[in-house]
Amino acid sequence: MRDPEVLVIGGGATGVGVARDLALRGVRATVVDRDGLCSGASGRSHGLLHSGARYAESDPEGAAECLAEARVLKRIAGACIADTGGLFVSLSGDDASYFEEKRTACRSVGIPVETLSPPEAREIVPELPTEVEHAMQVPDGVVYPSRLIAANAIDASAHGAEIRPHAPVESIEVRNGAVTQVRLGGTAETTVSPEFVVNAAGAWAGRVAELAGLSVEMAPTRGVMVSVEYDGLGPVLNRCRRPDDGDIVIPHPSEAVLGTTSVPVADPDDYETADWEIDVSIEECAKLLPPVAEAPILRSWWGLRPLYAPEETARGGRGISRGFVRLDHADDDVENMVSIVGGKLTTYRRMAEATVDLVCDRIGCAAACSTADRPLLGADDPARLDETIAAFDGQGPTDADIVGNV
């Protein structure tokens, strides 16, 4: 294993996206993860490809960013996504004024919206309840994160990046205001001397930062997803109310993924997984789609949102868009390290671009970002994607039913 110009710590969508961006700009990068690829937040998400509608009224700028990045992924990501569309549905008892607020905000952001009558909504999803009072279509979709990360890994590798799962960072040496060495364990068992280090470790970013004597305050929250047997849902279903537990249903070909909850977590390696979260997610989602109340449960899993504590405190908690934050540690007297935290799976490519822009400025690389315009290598070849998932131990629970079956 040779010394990389840039060492990327974290093998989720953002970390592997950073490696792809660096490689396409001609920078020699290595991405490492303590586990397989896709083992953190990316691979344990609900898999929504955001149109921006969920955040349109609370964070118009973040919503516009989601809309733009979702359009990019629809161009470049092939079999890594499904362009299903989405419905926002208001039920009797829900605040009718919130529906209007949401619709107006979507239009202000530029999110295409089509208002539907309850009968028109039931033509699209026949098993919607009779309590539907208002509905609108938005351009949501579904992300298959294991495949998305695999496609980024294929592209990064093809352009010279090295991908090293099961290579945990054991220590980071800082001398004279710069990282000089990083000790890797696991399958790597080596020490490298990168010119620059990118911390893209998600909920674990604070722990990676501590190894370099830095402070990155993370405030992760856990959320449960429950996959049940359900054939042919069609669009993503969103409950049109202030964000709460159990307000989204994600379609898969023969399943529906129900979610989610939001509970603060002190330790990302040791947190409770409570049965009440499964129960409330099913109960609430069944108000949107009644048959899921009795549908067989196929699997359930918890994921962690890698939230940046100062940003979340400033924004007021749940219901506000989880934007991303780029922390330039030159401000903390470590000149060759950056942390990228927060964000959403939909915006991983933009997060990577912002990070690599900073890195390239520091290492003297003048190449521009091209990741929005170049299709991901292998994205239209499901068999190749699935082989890559196996090679890098990159299967997450979100799309376990998809890999090898589509």
UniProtKB/TrEMBL annotation:
Domain of life: Archaea
Keywords: FAD, Flavoprotein, Oxidoreductase
Record carries keyword Oxidoreductase: yes
EC number(s) on file: 1.1.5.3
Name recorded for this polypeptide: Glycerol-3-phosphate dehydrogenase
GO cellular component, one term: glycerol-3-phosphate dehydrogenase (FAD) complex
GO BP term, pick one: glycerol-3-phosphate metabolic process
Domain FAD dependent oxidoreductase, first and last residues per copy: 6-324
Cofactor(s) the protein needs: FAD
Catalytic activity entry: a quinone + sn-glycerol 3-phosphate = dihydroxyacetone phosphate + a quinol
Coiled-coil segments: none
GO molecular function, one term: glycerol-3-phosphate dehydrogenase (quinone) activity
Family according to the record: Belongs to the FAD-dependent glycerol-3-phosphate dehydrogenase family.
Organism name: Halobellus ruber
Pfam families xref list: DAO
